[in-house]
Specification:
Shape: elongated
Distance between the termini: 18 Å
Order of helices and strands: HEEEEHEEHH
CATH class of the domain at 9-71 and 85-131: Alpha Beta
Strand content: 15-25%
Strand order of the largest sheet: 1-2-3-4-6-5
Number of helices: 4
Radius of gyration: 17 Å
């Protein structure tokens, strides 16, 4: 649960939803933002939940560091752009300045108190999508310089052997995200 401070009803509902899941979060002072971290299957995920009370909107942003050298950066950006074409909800980004792969998902709510199931689903989606793309990006980093021209990004996106296992969300056992 979030320490007592002046936050909107919207962000308070996000903190409550996180608490229901047993997720520890920290507020960002002076902002409508909560932060937390998860250990996913392939990577550590730093997550931000930002409420926009005037819109009744919530953005979940999951980040993971990934550095690409000049030779591999264009391949990584192609991977991210092609992965976005496959998405229905959310999007991938690459922050060139901070060298982070990012997944962002936003939802508009019709009430000031956000639905905890939707919040949890957004978090699970963000973590799963980021955990799906990181090993593919790692393949780009591990590919030898002399083999990069032979690397097919569309075929890389079809690989299923690097997908993380699908967690069981029925509540019967504690999840490790």
């Amino acid at each position: 649960m979030v320490p007592a401070m002046a936050i909107s009803r919207q962000l308070h509902s996000v903190a409550d939803a996180f608490g229901q899941q047993g997720w520890h979060c920290e507020p960002v002072e002076g902002r409508e933002v909560l932060t937390m971290a998860f250990e996913a299957h392939h990577t550590r995920v730093h997550l931000h939940a930002q409420a926009f009370p005037n819109l009744n909107a919530l953005a979940i942003v999951a980040e993971s560091p990934m550095v690409f050298d000049d030779l591999r950066q264009s391949y990584a950006l192609e991977l991210i752009m092609r992965a976005n074409k496959q998405l229905t909800l959310g999007n991938f980004e690459y922050d060139l300045d901070r060298q982070l792969i990012i997944f962002r998902i936003t939802n508009l709510f019709d009430k000031e108190v956000y639905d905890s199931d939707i919040i949890s689903s957004m978090v699970h989606c963000a973590i799963a999508e980021l955990d799906r793309i990181v090993p593919l990006a790692s393949v780009i980093n591990r590919t030898g310089d002399d083999l990069l021209d032979d690397l097919s990004i569309p075929l890389l996106l079809e690989r299923e052997d690097l997908l993380p296992p699908v967690p069981d969300y029925d509540g019967s056992e504690e999840e490790e995200l």
